[in-house]
Amino acid sequence: MERERLEQDPRPLSGYALMTSAYGVGLGAYLIHRGTRGGFPERSSVADLALSGIATHRLSRVISKEDIAAPIRAPLTELEGRGDLAESSERAREDVGPVRRALGKLLSCPYCLDQWVATGFAIGMVERPRETRFVSGVLTSATAANYLQAAYKRAIERD
Question: How many Cα atoms sit within 13 Å of 148 on the Cβ side?
Fold first, then answer.
C-alpha cells in the first residue's frame, strides 16, 4: 500500500533523496576535512553574514531566473513565460527521470537554491574569505542596483 502511494506521488522523491544525500555527504565530508585541517573561525561577523545573505539572494535569482543562465537550466526545464523584472519563469521538465526532474526543480526555484548557494558562500568565507567577500560585494551591489531599478520603474509608471 505504501509503495503504491509513493509511486503515484507526482514529486520526484528518489531524485530529491539523491540530491539531499549528496548535499549531506558533501557537507559532512567538508566538515570532517576542515576539522582535521585546523577547524573553523570562532564566529562569523554580522557584516559577513549580511554580505553573504544578500549575495546568496542575488546569485540564486541569477541561476534560477535570468536569461544569461538559461543554457544551464534548459536541459532540465521548460519556459513557462516571462516574470516580473525581465526574469524567466520556468518549470522542471516532466519528460525526464526523477533525478533530472529534481535538478530542474532546484534550478528553477531561487528559494530552493538558497541553501546550496549559501553553503558555497559559507565555505568560501572559511577557505578564501578575501575572494569571497569580493564576489559577495559584487553580487550585493548588483542586488542594490536591481532594487533601485525596480523602484525607478515603479516611480516612472506612476507618473
Answer: 6
Q: Evaluate whether 130 touches 76 at the Cβ level (below 8 Å).
A: no
Instruction: Specify the residue for cell string 534548459.
Output: 74
Q: How many domains does one find in the chain?
A: 1
pTM for this predicted structure: 0.87
Cα three-residue angle 16-58-90, rounded to 5 degrees: 50
Contact (CB, 8 A) for 125 and 132:
yes
Q: Give per-residue pLDDT as tens, 43-79.
A: 999 999 999 999 999 999 999 999 999 999 999 999 9
Which of 133, 127, 144 shows the shortest CA–CA distance to 58? 144
Closest CA to 51 of 133, 154, 144: 133
Q: Does residue 130 fall inside a structural domain?
A: yes
Decide if 1 is inside a domain.
no
Q: What is the pLDDT of residue 151?
A: 92
What's the pLDDT at 97?
92
Confidence of residue 148 (pLDDT cuts 50, 70, 90): very high
